[in-house]
Design brief:
Length: 126
């Protein structure tokens, strides 16, 4: 899984080639102006022996845990999500179909050759 995350990430901030990626579509950055409570919480956690880390998805995930301030996915003042990174740029193509309010019933380890997933919406199933 780590290799996949590293491939899709475009992390800003201090480089961490062991855990973070660069050049991918998913924009990540350290919080620019966190609420003052956040660094106070990290400092308080360190005061009672909980390790603090600069990145909550870096080395902390390999050990007993710790405390850090979450990264953000805000670029040019807009929150980015997976749809903004992958779906919106592909919507001009003729083959994507987007159904809002639909619920995926299961994800198989291998999607069928047509690339579809079983889903349901308002008691209708596909």
């Amino acid at each position: 899984m780590l290799a996949i995350y590293k491939r899709i990430e475009n992390r800003q901030g201090a480089p961490d080639p062991d855990y973070r990626g660069s050049g991918g579509k998913v924009w990540l950055q350290p919080a620019r102006n966190p609420n003052p409570i956040a660094p106070a919480m990290v400092k308080a956690a360190a005061g009672i022996g909980i390790p603090s880390y600069a990145d909550h998805n870096g080395a902390v995930v390999e050990g007993p845990g710790g405390c850090s301030i979450a990264n953000t996915s805000i670029r040019e003042g807009r929150r980015m999500n997976m749809a903004a990174h992958y779906l919106h740029p592909a919507m001009h193509r003729p083959n994507p179909t987007v159904l809002t309010g639909a619920e995926v019933r299961r994800i198989a380890s291998c999607i069928n050759p047509s690339g579809s997933l079983p889903w349901s919406k308002n008691s209708w199933r596909a």
